[in-house]
Amino acid sequence: MIGYFRVPPVRGATFDGPLADKLTAAGCQALHHDACYALAVHKPGLEAAIASARPGDLLVVPSLHAFAAHIVDLLQVMGKLQAAGVYLMSLGEGIDTRMPGGFFPVCAQLLQFNDQTRMVRTAEEKIVRLGRPRPAPSEAPGDEEPASEAVVESPPEA
Question: Alpha-carbon distance 113 to 12, whole Å?
């Protein structure tokens, strides 16, 4: 079993922290990792993990969020794994593509992953906006006065 995870670039997050411990406890003999910077495309740790895997091997990740930046990234990496004959196990979501019929639970988790990613992005946008004054209610979009209803006259009866 090969383990892989991404570490966010925040103070205190390390490559030998709880994510590595979780993968080691799951039985991973080799660990690969990357620092995740926004939507980074170049992930040498992931490329090394896939290159070291043989057909039938299992790539174990702590969660989908510790594996991919967004849904498109996730699907692209899963395509690479499938092409290499490598299976994926996500400990957090209970995904194991070795199981018969495992594809459908993966699809359901992908939808949940997409929703969670959207929530994270929204939270990050709120953090970016901290300190900026909010627009006054009269300036906020969508606060315009409702348009008066048009009066339609009936044609005169003949």
Answer: 25
Closest CA to 4 of 39, 41, 40, 48: 48
Is it the case that residue 48 has pLDDT exceeding 90?
yes
8 touches 65 (CB < 8 A):
no
Residues in the chain: 158
Start-end of H helices in 67-132: 71-84, 103-129
For residue 6, pLDDT beyond 50: yes
Give the strand pairing for 95-96 and 87-90. antiparallel
Band the pLDDT of 32: cuts 50, 70, 90: very high
- 55 — pLDDT class (breaks 50, 70, 90): very high
Domains annotated for the chain, with CATH where assigned, are 2-129 (3.40.50.1390)
